[in-house]
Design a protein that fits this description.
Layout lengths: L2 E5 L4 H6 L5 E11 L1 H9 L12 E4 L3 E5 L2 E6 L12 H6 L5 E4 L5 H10 L2 E4 L5 H6 L1 E8 L8 E16 L6 H20 L4
Protein backbone atom coordinates (compact mmCIF):
# COMPACT_ATOMS: atom_id res chain seq x y z
CA UNK A 1 0.00 0.00 0.00
CA UNK A 2 1.35 3.35 -1.07
CA UNK A 3 0.43 6.88 0.00
CA UNK A 4 0.01 9.68 -2.52
CA UNK A 5 -0.61 13.40 -2.25
CA UNK A 6 -2.09 14.48 -5.58
CA UNK A 7 -3.18 17.73 -7.15
CA UNK A 8 -6.00 18.11 -9.62
CA UNK A 9 -6.46 17.92 -12.53
CA UNK A 10 -5.38 14.27 -12.49
CA UNK A 11 -3.64 12.70 -15.47
CA UNK A 12 -4.26 9.18 -16.74
CA UNK A 13 -0.63 8.33 -16.01
CA UNK A 14 -0.98 9.29 -12.35
CA UNK A 15 -4.33 7.50 -11.92
CA UNK A 16 -3.00 4.27 -13.43
CA UNK A 17 -0.28 4.17 -10.75
CA UNK A 18 -2.92 3.90 -8.03
CA UNK A 19 -3.80 0.46 -6.68
CA UNK A 20 -6.56 -0.80 -4.42
CA UNK A 21 -5.79 -0.04 -0.74
CA UNK A 22 -3.49 2.90 -1.57
CA UNK A 23 -4.17 6.11 0.35
CA UNK A 24 -4.73 9.42 -1.42
CA UNK A 25 -4.78 13.03 -0.20
CA UNK A 26 -6.14 15.56 -2.71
CA UNK A 27 -5.36 19.22 -3.30
CA UNK A 28 -6.83 21.58 -5.86
CA UNK A 29 -10.32 21.59 -7.35
CA UNK A 30 -12.94 19.05 -6.32
CA UNK A 31 -16.36 18.98 -7.98
CA UNK A 32 -19.47 18.07 -5.98
CA UNK A 33 -22.17 16.15 -7.85
CA UNK A 34 -25.31 14.21 -7.01
CA UNK A 35 -28.27 12.46 -8.66
CA UNK A 36 -30.03 15.59 -9.91
CA UNK A 37 -26.83 17.09 -11.30
CA UNK A 38 -26.12 13.92 -13.26
CA UNK A 39 -29.69 13.62 -14.53
CA UNK A 40 -29.45 17.25 -15.66
CA UNK A 41 -26.20 16.56 -17.52
CA UNK A 42 -26.94 13.16 -19.06
CA UNK A 43 -30.71 12.67 -19.26
CA UNK A 44 -31.58 16.30 -19.98
CA UNK A 45 -28.47 16.81 -22.12
CA UNK A 46 -26.94 19.89 -20.47
CA UNK A 47 -23.17 19.82 -20.77
CA UNK A 48 -21.33 21.11 -17.69
CA UNK A 49 -20.36 24.79 -18.07
CA UNK A 50 -16.87 23.94 -16.80
CA UNK A 51 -14.32 21.36 -17.95
CA UNK A 52 -14.26 18.10 -16.00
CA UNK A 53 -11.12 16.90 -17.77
CA UNK A 54 -8.91 15.26 -15.14
CA UNK A 55 -11.47 16.06 -12.46
CA UNK A 56 -12.06 14.48 -9.09
CA UNK A 57 -15.80 14.34 -8.34
CA UNK A 58 -17.43 13.77 -4.97
CA UNK A 59 -20.97 12.47 -4.44
CA UNK A 60 -22.51 15.11 -2.16
CA UNK A 61 -25.47 17.43 -1.61
CA UNK A 62 -23.80 19.99 0.61
CA UNK A 63 -25.24 22.43 3.08
CA UNK A 64 -23.97 25.84 1.99
CA UNK A 65 -24.82 29.39 3.03
CA UNK A 66 -24.94 32.11 0.38
CA UNK A 67 -23.96 35.59 1.56
CA UNK A 68 -24.16 38.02 -1.34
CA UNK A 69 -22.27 36.26 -4.14
CA UNK A 70 -20.20 34.12 -1.79
CA UNK A 71 -21.07 30.55 -0.86
CA UNK A 72 -19.75 29.29 2.48
CA UNK A 73 -19.53 25.59 3.36
CA UNK A 74 -21.60 24.64 6.43
CA UNK A 75 -21.54 20.85 6.08
CA UNK A 76 -20.20 18.93 3.09
CA UNK A 77 -20.81 15.23 3.60
CA UNK A 78 -20.55 12.32 1.21
CA UNK A 79 -23.41 10.16 0.02
CA UNK A 80 -23.74 6.58 -1.23
CA UNK A 81 -22.47 6.13 -4.78
CA UNK A 82 -24.35 3.04 -5.96
CA UNK A 83 -27.43 4.81 -7.26
CA UNK A 84 -25.26 7.10 -9.44
CA UNK A 85 -23.36 4.19 -10.97
CA UNK A 86 -24.99 4.48 -14.41
CA UNK A 87 -23.43 7.91 -14.95
CA UNK A 88 -19.81 7.03 -14.16
CA UNK A 89 -18.86 5.55 -17.56
CA UNK A 90 -20.07 8.72 -19.28
CA UNK A 91 -18.24 10.97 -16.84
CA UNK A 92 -14.99 9.17 -17.66
CA UNK A 93 -15.47 8.71 -21.40
CA UNK A 94 -17.28 11.88 -22.46
CA UNK A 95 -16.02 14.41 -19.93
CA UNK A 96 -12.61 13.02 -18.97
CA UNK A 97 -13.17 12.74 -15.22
CA UNK A 98 -10.54 10.65 -13.42
CA UNK A 99 -11.75 10.07 -9.85
CA UNK A 100 -15.09 9.46 -8.18
CA UNK A 101 -15.25 9.92 -4.40
CA UNK A 102 -18.06 8.46 -2.34
CA UNK A 103 -19.27 5.74 -0.02
CA UNK A 104 -20.11 2.12 -0.75
CA UNK A 105 -18.40 1.68 -4.11
CA UNK A 106 -19.86 1.22 -7.57
CA UNK A 107 -20.56 -1.72 -9.85
CA UNK A 108 -19.10 -3.65 -12.76
CA UNK A 109 -19.89 -1.16 -15.56
CA UNK A 110 -18.04 1.57 -13.66
CA UNK A 111 -15.12 -0.76 -12.96
CA UNK A 112 -14.86 -1.58 -16.67
CA UNK A 113 -14.94 2.12 -17.56
CA UNK A 114 -12.16 2.80 -15.05
CA UNK A 115 -10.05 0.10 -16.69
CA UNK A 116 -10.74 1.42 -20.18
CA UNK A 117 -10.40 5.16 -19.64
CA UNK A 118 -8.13 5.37 -16.58
CA UNK A 119 -10.22 6.17 -13.55
CA UNK A 120 -10.46 5.31 -9.87
CA UNK A 121 -13.04 5.20 -7.12
CA UNK A 122 -11.85 6.72 -3.84
CA UNK A 123 -13.71 5.75 -0.68
CA UNK A 124 -14.11 8.21 2.14
CA UNK A 125 -14.91 7.38 5.74
CA UNK A 126 -18.63 7.62 6.46
CA UNK A 127 -19.66 10.23 9.02
CA UNK A 128 -16.61 12.39 8.34
CA UNK A 129 -18.54 15.44 7.10
CA UNK A 130 -17.13 17.73 9.79
CA UNK A 131 -13.57 16.88 8.77
CA UNK A 132 -14.34 17.10 5.04
CA UNK A 133 -15.92 20.53 5.49
CA UNK A 134 -12.79 21.87 7.19
CA UNK A 135 -10.70 20.64 4.27
CA UNK A 136 -12.67 22.86 1.86
CA UNK A 137 -10.79 26.12 1.56
CA UNK A 138 -13.34 27.83 -0.66
CA UNK A 139 -16.50 27.30 -2.70
CA UNK A 140 -15.10 28.63 -5.98
CA UNK A 141 -18.31 28.42 -8.01
CA UNK A 142 -21.79 26.88 -8.03
CA UNK A 143 -22.77 25.75 -11.53
CA UNK A 144 -26.42 24.92 -12.33
CA UNK A 145 -27.27 26.96 -9.23
CA UNK A 146 -31.00 26.39 -9.77
CA UNK A 147 -30.44 22.73 -8.79
CA UNK A 148 -29.05 23.56 -5.32
CA UNK A 149 -28.57 21.53 -3.09
CA UNK A 150 -27.81 19.17 -5.99
CA UNK A 151 -25.99 21.64 -8.22
CA UNK A 152 -22.48 21.20 -9.64
CA UNK A 153 -20.16 22.55 -6.96
CA UNK A 154 -16.59 23.66 -7.54
CA UNK A 155 -14.62 23.42 -4.30
CA UNK A 156 -11.02 24.34 -3.60
CA UNK A 157 -9.60 21.74 -1.21
CA UNK A 158 -6.41 21.33 0.79
CA UNK A 159 -5.24 17.98 2.20
CA UNK A 160 -8.63 16.43 1.43
CA UNK A 161 -8.87 12.91 2.79
CA UNK A 162 -7.49 10.47 3.61
CA UNK A 163 -9.17 8.58 0.77
CA UNK A 164 -8.77 4.86 0.08
CA UNK A 165 -8.48 3.52 -3.46
CA UNK A 166 -11.42 1.09 -3.52
CA UNK A 167 -11.64 0.55 -7.32
CA UNK A 168 -8.62 0.98 -9.57
CA UNK A 169 -7.88 1.09 -13.30
CA UNK A 170 -6.52 -2.47 -13.22
CA UNK A 171 -9.87 -4.15 -12.52
CA UNK A 172 -9.41 -4.48 -8.75
CA UNK A 173 -12.42 -3.81 -6.52
CA UNK A 174 -11.91 -3.65 -2.75
CA UNK A 175 -15.60 -4.24 -1.99
CA UNK A 176 -15.64 -7.42 -4.11
CA UNK A 177 -12.52 -8.65 -2.30
CA UNK A 178 -14.02 -8.02 1.14
CA UNK A 179 -17.24 -9.79 0.13
CA UNK A 180 -15.30 -12.82 -1.14
CA UNK A 181 -13.30 -13.02 2.10
CA UNK A 182 -16.48 -12.82 4.17
CA UNK A 183 -18.15 -15.56 2.13
CA UNK A 184 -15.15 -17.87 2.72
CA UNK A 185 -15.62 -17.51 6.48
CA UNK A 186 -19.36 -18.19 6.49
CA UNK A 187 -19.18 -22.02 6.75
CA UNK A 188 -16.91 -21.76 9.80
CA UNK A 189 -19.18 -19.18 11.43
CA UNK A 190 -22.30 -21.26 10.71
CA UNK A 191 -20.52 -24.32 12.14
CA UNK A 192 -19.77 -22.52 15.41
CA UNK A 193 -23.40 -21.50 15.64
CA UNK A 194 -24.60 -25.03 14.92
CA UNK A 195 -26.33 -23.95 11.70
CA UNK A 196 -26.13 -26.54 8.90
CA UNK A 197 -24.52 -25.21 5.72
Amino acid sequence: MAKYTLSTPLTEEVVRKLKVRDTVILNGTLFGIRDLTLIHIFDKKNDPPVSLQGAALIHTAPSLLKEGNIWKPICVGTTTSGRMDRFTPGLLEKYGARAIIGKGGQYQASLEAMKKFGGVYLAIVGGAAAVETKQIVEVEKVHFEELHPEALYQFKVKDFGPLTVAMDSHGNHLYYEVKAQAEKKLPEIYGRLGIPV
